[in-house]
Write a structure and sequence with these properties.
- With about 180 residues, this protein is an alpha/beta fold.
- It folds into two domains: about 70 residues, Helix Hairpins (Orthogonal Bundle), CATH 1.10.287; about 60 residues, Transcription elongation factor, GreA/GreB, C-terminal domain (Chitinase A, domain 3, Roll).
- The protein is about 35% helix and about 20% strand.
- The strands form two sheets. It has a five-stranded mixed beta sheet with strand order 5-4-3-7-6. A two-stranded parallel sheet has the order 1-2.
- A hairpin with a 2-residue loop joins strand 6 and strand 7.
Length: about 180
């Protein structure tokens, strides 16, 4: 088969999808979130990357790399791992750990677990960093519309949540700092 129509390794780098830049500004994060990001970085560097390097080295030793799926996909996975490692290093370097557990106030700040009542019923949300947000589990980023509405409010206050779906009135029932 002619090399004119095959993909060369040197060209693989140029065709990688562009990774969106990390959000700029402050990177507030809880100690638990920082530990999770560090653990992911450690796993990628100490476990996954060496395994993939071993697979790529084995595949390269077999000879023809142009039709060797283990080699091609291994190199692609290696680039994905390296990209994620660079992203995690940047996020961890710029992280500002906020230790809010045990805080004794009824006012909502970063790290607060807020039990609130709205038209859809009661729910609890915890205000966390951008890298930790998981709305399905009640963890919302401090820059999200609901967190912006809640920040600096107190227990018993009613706040207005402005979202694309419209405005909602939310009553703050309880504020804790786990």
């Amino acid at each position: 088969m002619s090399k004119a129509f095959t993909k060369e390794d040197a060209n693989d780098e140029a065709e990688e999808p562009v990774v969106p830049a990390a959000p700029s500004g402050k990177n507030y994060i809880t100690p638990a979130g920082y530990a999770r990001l560090e653990a992911e970085l450690r796993k990628l560097v100490e476990v996954e990357r060496p395994e993939v390097v071993k697979t790529v080295a084995w595949a390269a030793s077999l000879g023809d790399r142009s039709e060797n799926a283990d080699y091609i996909y291994g190199k692609r996975r290696l680039r994905e791992i390296d990209r994620r490692v660079r992203f995690l290093i940047k996020r961890l370097e710029g992280a500002e750990i906020v230790r809010s557990s045990g805080r004794d106030t009824d006012q909502v700040f970063f790290g607060a677990a807020v039990r609130l009542k709205g038209p859809a019923g009661e729910k609890t949300v915890t205000i966390v960093g951008i890298d930790e947000a998981d709305p399905a589990h009640g963890q919302v980023s401090w820059i999200s519309p609901i967190a912006k509405a809640l920040l600096k409010a107190r227990e018993g206050d009613t706040v207005t949540l402005r979202s694309p779906a419209g405005e909602e009135q939310l009553e703050i029932l309880e504020v804790t700092y786990p």
